[in-house]
Each structure stands twice: as structure tokens, then as C-alpha cells.
Amino acid sequence: MRKPLEVTLIVMAWLLCNHPTPVATDSQIKALRHNHRLYRSPHENTPLTTSDPHGGVPMGISNSLCDDAETYLEVDWDPASKQEYTCDSESALKPPLHQCLPDPIVYSEAIPTSGAHRPLWPRYGEYDYVPPQRWLHSLEHGGIVFLYHPCADAKQVEQLREIAKGCLYKHIITPNKNLSLDTPYAALAWGCKLLMSSVVPSRVVTFIKEHALKGHEGHVNADGQYSKALRVPATHQLYEEDTEASLCHMLTSEGNNNQDSLAVHGEDGKTFSSTGETKSSSDRYFSSVSDIVNRIAADSARRRSRLDEESAKLNRNIQKLITAFRKFQQ
Ligand SMILES: *[C@@H]1O[C@H](CO)[C@@H](O)[C@H](O)[C@H]1NC(C)=O
């Protein structure tokens, strides 16, 4: 009779002979990596106790058990394929699609600034609501879209509205719930967006001057055909159409003053750092003088029309009074 220990040993030997262990099993590698303080599975949320702040895996040390910059590269990309660095017809830039209704258009971004859109674009102005499927077309035509979250601060929305109206005809103003409440205000141009936690007039004006009228059809000035929920149509004020030079000329709000001081500082900086190009700085001087003249002209035109309105109203009231008085006399 064999003793139990002997039996166990024989069984173990038999097991070892008939099931030879591979060079290193997964669990052995795991144990090894663990011992090397290099193993950290994404499923294992407990970081290793070590002074290394990156979860126990120090940087810059090549280790075949972790990362040697050679093995398993295909987990991130396939080095055998040229796909990732070849321009194919799929990814080449194509004009965005004009998509007919009732086909839905879905965007991957919460606030898209390019992509497929509807063939009819919105009339410029302020809306109760315009969906991105429409205003993307306005961006393509070089317009600026101003978004605010419906829960945003009413005073700041008013400020955004003033800037929009005073800066360009080709503007769309609409609420949009896809904005985060952390950044409930936005100005959009084709391919560009400015998200703001509060309305900073000088930033908005700079954004408009840099990006308006620049979509790949930025020269298209015709107004749109869509006007569902249009609240206030845009009005041409001093200028027949938007030009680079006319951008933000109608601004009279505080925002404009901020912008003025900003522009002056910027230009001074440029003038002094340039190589003494007096011509360009005098050009700049005259263009800013003509800016001011234009602005004064626009301002007085507006005041005059307001006065005209007031005096027409007064006249109407006087007429009413006279009529009432005559009736009273009879
Ligand atoms: C909101 O964002 C999603 C993507 O996150 C997009 O598909 C959808 O069109 C957006 N809706 C609006 C109203 O902007």
C-alpha cells in the first residue's frame, strides 16, 4: 500500500507530464507584471501602491512585459496598412450635401459648424428657434450664427443680440439646448466656434471680424427662403450688404467701446513692432478715422430716424386731440 503522500506526488507528476505547461501562461505573465509593478489591467481599478502617480507604470522605461514600442502595436493601429496616411476619395473634402426632406440629417457633434444641410437657408434675423439643419447653410454663406441656451441669462442674451444686429446683416440668432449650461453662449462661423460662459463683447467682435463672410460660399449675400418661427428679420442699416469693412460698424453698445480699446492696443503693438512702415500705419490711421466718421454718420442717421418717428407720433397725437376737441365742441 502506498502512502497518501506518494499517491499525490505520482498524480502530480502524471499531470505535469501529460499536460505540459506553456512557456508562460497568462496568469503567470500577469503575476510577473504584477511583481514588476508594471501590470495594470483596465478592469482592475485598484491602483498599485507605489509612488508613481500614473497608476504604477513609470514613463520612459521600455519593458517587454508592458510597452517596448515594438510589440502589440496593432492594438492601436495596423502598421502593415497604409490606410491611415493615405488620402482616399472617402475622406477627401467634398461640398456638403443638400439633403431633401423628409430625410433626417444627424450630426455627430452637439454644435456642428459644417456638414450636410437643407437646400433652403433661413432668412437672416432672430428666431424663436432654427434647427442646425438650416443654420449650417447660413454659416456656409459666411453668416454668423449666435446661439444661447434657453435657460441663459436674459441680459447677456440681449447683449449678444445687440452685437449680432450691430455687426452684420447675415446673422441668425436662436436658442439651442445642445449648448452646455457651463457655456450657454456661442458664436459660430463655417468651421469655427466660440463658446462662452458669459458674453464678452470684445471677443465676439474679434471672432466676427476674423471669421464672418469666409465660408466657402461666404460671398453669397442673397437672403434665405425659410422663415418658420422668424421673430425679427435682419435689417440693412447703413450698408447695402455686409463687407469686411462694414463689420460691426453699427455697434453702439458698451461692447463696441471695449472693442475699440482692444483694437487700438492691438494696432499700436503692431505698429511699433513693424519695421517702421509709416505708410501702413498712416493707412491704418486714415481707415480708423473713416471708421469713426462712418460710425458717427450711422449713429446720426439712426437718431434722425428715431426723431422722425417721435415727431410723427406727436403729430398723430395732436391730430387726435384736435379731432376730439372738435367733436366735443359740436
Ligand atoms: C444635438 O446634438 C446631437 C449630437 O450630440 C445632434 O445629433 C443633434 O442634431 C443636436 N441637436 C441640435 C438641436 O442642435
UniProtKB/TrEMBL annotation:
What Pfam families does the database record attribute to this sequence? DUF3105
Q: Which UniProt keywords apply?
A: Signal
Q: In terms of domain of life, where is this protein from?
A: Eukaryota
**Might you report a single GO cellular component term?**
cytoplasm
Where does the UniProt annotation place the signal sequence?
Answer: 1-25
Q: Which PANTHER family match?
A: TUMOR PROTEIN P53-INDUCIBLE PROTEIN 13
What this protein is called in its record is DUF3105 domain-containing protein
Organism equals Pomacea canaliculata
